[in-house]
Amino acid sequence: MSRPGNDAAALHIDTSKPHPARMYDWFLGGKDNYPVDEAMGRQMLAVEPGVPVMAKVNRAFMHRATRWLAGQGVRQFLDIGTGIPTEPNLHQVAQKAEPTTRVVYCDNDPIVLAHAEALLSGTPEGAIDYVQADARDVDAILEHASRTLDFGKPVALSLISLLHFVSDEDGAYELVDRLTGVLAPGSHVVISHLTADFHPEEARKVDEMYRKNTLTLAPRNRAQFAAFFEGLDVVEPGIVAAEAWHPELGDPIPGQEDIISAGYVAVGRKP
Description:
Blueprint: H1 20-27, H2 35-47, H3 51-71, E1 76-80, H4 90-97, E2 102-107, H5 110-114, H6 116-119, E3 127-132, H7 138-145, E4 156-160, H8 172-181, E5 188-194, H9 200-212, H10 222-226, E6 233-234, E7 240-241, E8 263-269
Parallel strand pairs: 1-2, 1-4, 2-3, 4-5
Antiparallel strand pairs: 5-8, 6-8, 7-8
Helix pairs in contact: 1-2, 2-9, 3-4
């Protein structure tokens, strides 16, 4: 298990503008955020008060998908766009089901690197590693991940709340194609993604906020989301709102009965 370096250059954190991962942390009730993140978060709450519940519902989907995959015999996970650690983390869910599970996390946010020790504390029988890299740097991610994961065997690729921060022009679909292309048959792809389909007016206002802060936001409709799974077999219950994906595998989030989440989720299997 390798430990990432915590040199000063790597840990430079820009607090001059809000950051999506830190805002997500604030919505989840975390403490790894700054006033600029909270300020934009409160602006979003003025538009859609249910955002914190939506964030927790999205996180809960990741937990349920991980449990489901572990039940299918998946023992390797590559989680890109990890975000700030919020327990239980993916490896804790997976290794609870099977202690020998191997997990590689990837993120380009220095604040995630600062908390990588929390991500790297797993079972003695398993293995965990962390890659600091941009999601679009596929070669670097795969080269590093291959030290821990055997890509000749099934891997679960987790892209939770990542792709709506990658525009079509920046190669969102090419990114997924390149990653799934190296996966062995029997691998799975897990995606949650922001959409404007459920809350169009609120989504328009949030998009304006992101643009004003020079942040990329690319919510996609159902057809655009489905295109990420081209060539994969989407498992039941198919493409649904986050709260509707195998709810029996986890506990409901308080308040979720009063909202429709703002994203689509799905899990695809590589034939």
